[in-house]
Amino acid sequence: MTTVREPKQDRSRATRLRLLEATIDCLAESGWSATTVADVAERAGVSRGAAQHHFPVREDLITAALEFMFDSRMTTAMDAAKSAGASAARKTETVISELVEYFTGPMFKAALQVWTAAAADPALKERIVPLEAKFGRTAHRLTIDALGVDDSDPATHQLVQATLDLARGLGLADVLTDDSARRKKIVRRWAATLDTALKPKP
Amino acid sequence: MTTVREPKQDRSRATRLRLLEATIDCLAESGWSATTVADVAERAGVSRGAAQHHFPVREDLITAALEFMFDSRMTTAMDAAKSAGASAARKTETVISELVEYFTGPMFKAALQVWTAAAADPALKERIVPLEAKFGRTAHRLTIDALGVDDSDPATHQLVQATLDLARGLGLADVLTDDSARRKKIVRRWAATLDTALKPKP
């Protein structure tokens, strides 16, 4: 089946995507209170009216941005780890590096602004909690898949969970200062420790 | 040498302490933007004038609160771990549990509000960065001491750093929901893994 190209719909989709990307950058760089629909529209080069047509309420824009960008960036990170790790001897280190790369990028910094605002805002919290649960499940599944380990083993499951918690902690340590030199050593050490712990006992 | 008791100075010190404690609670529960000197004074039951006498500027109050409460609570946590762990077989698990307890308490939730605000506020960031470095060093030193391990060994140093990053990540996972059930399993698993990793090779 062929579909007729619809330029108007394409334009609308492109505008939406520009708004979602600008929301993440705006949150990561300017913080929660400086991220309104008007601020994001300006950053994206979209008229305020068009932005409000797509996202009448600020919370809609922010949750849509988190959801879309999380899926796209986390999948990209783990795909990169898988294609790099396939031939590499140090697969675990490659996967953890990509994971930590994600958690120190704009997506995590943006999410941190929203999570922190939600801690003191019950209505926002209600929207964010299911999103957090979904992100947690997806990140776990993609990491298990990239590492190629068996999640039905409780020790493996818990160590992969711990690795995600570590990545989140390393993300937080990078919010105010460039923590990359210290982080590199931690990732290498954690990867070696995880490799030993995940190795089937003889 | 005996000192004459100075009731007025005692009262002033008590007021200051009440303000510092109220600042942490206010940040943790109501967030950054709802934590002004006036809000904290009201919560502490101190007149606005008296609060402003102690802390003319909001940033002074907040950094003083973080500094004082961090020292007091982190030391308490690690002292608890040491006295509990002295006779316990599972010293590592006790120390990590206390550490994680600290990172899921009001002190971490308060600090998170300040760190996140500082990410988008260069003047605040300048005040917070040295504090973050100091907290990191102190937490590391107290953890090394409580575990009774040798920090001059690079692997040990990095694994204790990773443990602190993990604790920070677990703290973040507890901001919006009660994550204690999952956390307990992670702590136990990491303690066992860390114990094996720190054991001198035969």
From TrEMBL, chains A, B:
Gene Ontology molecular function: DNA-binding transcription factor activity; transcription cis-regulatory region binding
Occurrences of domain HTH tetR-type (ranges): 13-73
Signal peptide stretch: none
SUPFAM superfamilies the record matches: Homeodomain-like (SSF46689)
Entry keyword set: DNA-binding
UniProt DNA-binding residue ranges: 36-55
Entry protein name: TetR/AcrR family transcriptional regulator
Source species of the chain: Antrihabitans stalactiti
Taxonomic lineage: Bacteria, Bacillati, Actinomycetota, Actinomycetes, Mycobacteriales
